[in-house]
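In the previous chapter we treated chains in isolation. Here, by contrast, the input contains two separate entities that must be folded as one system, with a combined length of 411 residues.
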Amino acid sequence: MSAHFLVPFLLVIVCLGSAWFLPRFLAPSVGVVTLTVSVVLATCTTLLMFMQLGGAGISEVPFVSDALGWCRALYGGDHGAPPFLGIAAALVLGLIAARMGRYVHRVFQDRKVFGDVDGVEVVLLSQPVAFAVPGPRGGVVISNSLLSALDRHERSVVLAHENAHLRHRHHLYIHLVETCATALPFLRPFARKVKYLTERWADEVAAERVGSRDLVATTIARVALLPSSEMRAHSLSIGGGNVVTRVEALVVPLPATPVRVTLFGCSVVITAALGLILQLHHLVDFVTHAGHL
Amino acid sequence: MVSRRPLGSLESEVLEVLWKSDDPLTPSEVLHRLDTDLAYTTVMTVLGRLWGKGLANRSKTGRAFAYSAVMSEADLSADRMRKVLDASSDRVATMSHFLDGLDSVQQRELRRMLEERE
């Protein structure tokens, strides 16, 4: 197996690794975008690698190579993937496609279930829940038990938090990284991190709206400690993510991003993009090569 | 620039403003506090919807209505609530899935932080 399958892949994985540590120096909003872009690039690169591996391997199966007019004497091993590896890669790709399809299907089902939600909907539930429902109409679902447990200011924190999810379209980031993580399970921790960071993002927006980070911190803590709450949390809910770290983050000042971190972040993303382009180039090169023969 | 935000999410932003305010607000006051470039009529529509859902009270002040948030739980209209709940009750339970359980250490930590603030 030749190295050019792996070089872009390794490049992107290294970038992904550095992107993991960036958010602690960044405002949550920048962190979400950086991580999402890195995860999507890594997924594309990995999928392209599988495609090329599959293509190269399968094209060397004697029957297929004859059909392609492939001259095995000249080009056998040229692309460096033995047939069994090609078939394995094709199977993996099929599996990935099925898993991604299932995830997207589930997202659309959820959409249908909450399609009736139009604006603020108060539901009768003993658990204190509040979550944002994105969509063509969209809105926020809040349980009456949560409302009755909070005072006026805390209620506006909850709404400001959910509104931030809607206004900044956090569901798009979450669905993107979730789709990637469904396809490639090793990206699961990144999806979790993006989810957590969208909560932090919404917390900061809410703090700005109500004019107090302290109030947001106490509200989150109070919601989390409500009896029967048990931290039941939807991904876009006031109780989502690790509550303790969210509260802690709100009581210390926001990190000021030094210029060198910004530069580093940009270079990480650019390198990841280059890796993807390289991979794409290899694939195109391979396809034209195979097509001409 | 025309905002194309869906009415649904606008509704919760308007309610957020009502909850924050001590006094009833007229549509133009709400518009002012939203600091967006929405049309006056849009805000009026949204306030009307909140009133229709029983989430806001309104009273006549001069020529316009002034709106305030319904605070007590008893006043929230139960009919409307049930309708949404029928469609989604078990779904709400699954949607609000267990993400990150609070163990006893975290609970103590949170309580300590709350006490420090108060």
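Confidence is low (pLDDT under 50) at residues 93-101 of chain B. Chain B touches chain A through 52 residues (CB under 8 Å). Compare these points with the single-chain example from earlier in the chapter.
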